[in-house]
Design brief:
By secondary structure, this protein is α+β, with helices and mostly antiparallel strands. 43% of the residues lie in helices and 22% in strands. It is built from three helices and five strands, in the order H-H-H-E-E-E-E-E. Strands 1-4-5-3-2 form a five-stranded mixed β-sheet, with no helix packed on it. The protein is rod-shaped. This is NfeD family protein. Keywords: Membrane, Transmembrane, Transmembrane helix.
């Protein structure tokens, strides 16, 4: 049995789906859609260049749509407040005391950091555990730790 170009497209589609299942990246499924479009174009008798064009257009459009939908659903947050971009976001620090202006110094990862309070506690923040919500330059932005 001879391997046709349409079969090659389906094999590529299957490989992309298998890799996606092992990595969890949804974008590979979109590229698999492009390979499926190439396979369908092959079965319709289109030339190799038209098959590649259909795979590229469908796969690329699916990736772009997936990216735009995900970005709009998650909301574009700045890197300083995005836990996906900065591993420090969401970590807990212990505050011993606060200054009158809402600033403090905390020990975090073996260093002393300047920090400021971003919550709305009245009359002001109290000592205790706080969560890093953002990092602006070398200053941690802290808020109250949420109860579990």
């Amino acid at each position: 049995m001879e391997m046709t170009l349409g079969s090659t497209w389906w094999v590529a589609c299957g490989i992309l789906v298998a890799v996606e299942l092992s990595t969890g990246t949804f974008y590979l499924l979109m590229l698999a859609l492009g390979c499926a479009a190439g396979a369908v174009a092959s079965h319709l008798g289109l030339s190799e260049s038209r098959q590649m064009l259909s795979a590229a257009v469908i796969g690329g459009a699916a990736v772009a749509a997936c990216y735009l939908l995900r970005r709009n659903a998650l909301g574009a947050s700045p890197a300083g407040a995005n836990a996906d971009a900065n591993m420090d976001i969401g970590q807990t620090v212990e505050v011993a005391s606060w200054e009158a202006d809402g600033s403090t110094r905390v020990k975090y990862r073996g260093a002393s950091w300047q920090a400021s309070y971003i919550g709305s506690a009245v009359p002001g923040p109290t000592p205790g555990p706080y969560v890093i919500r953002a990092i602006e330059g070398s200053r941690l932005r802290l808020d109250h730790q949420e109860a579990l």
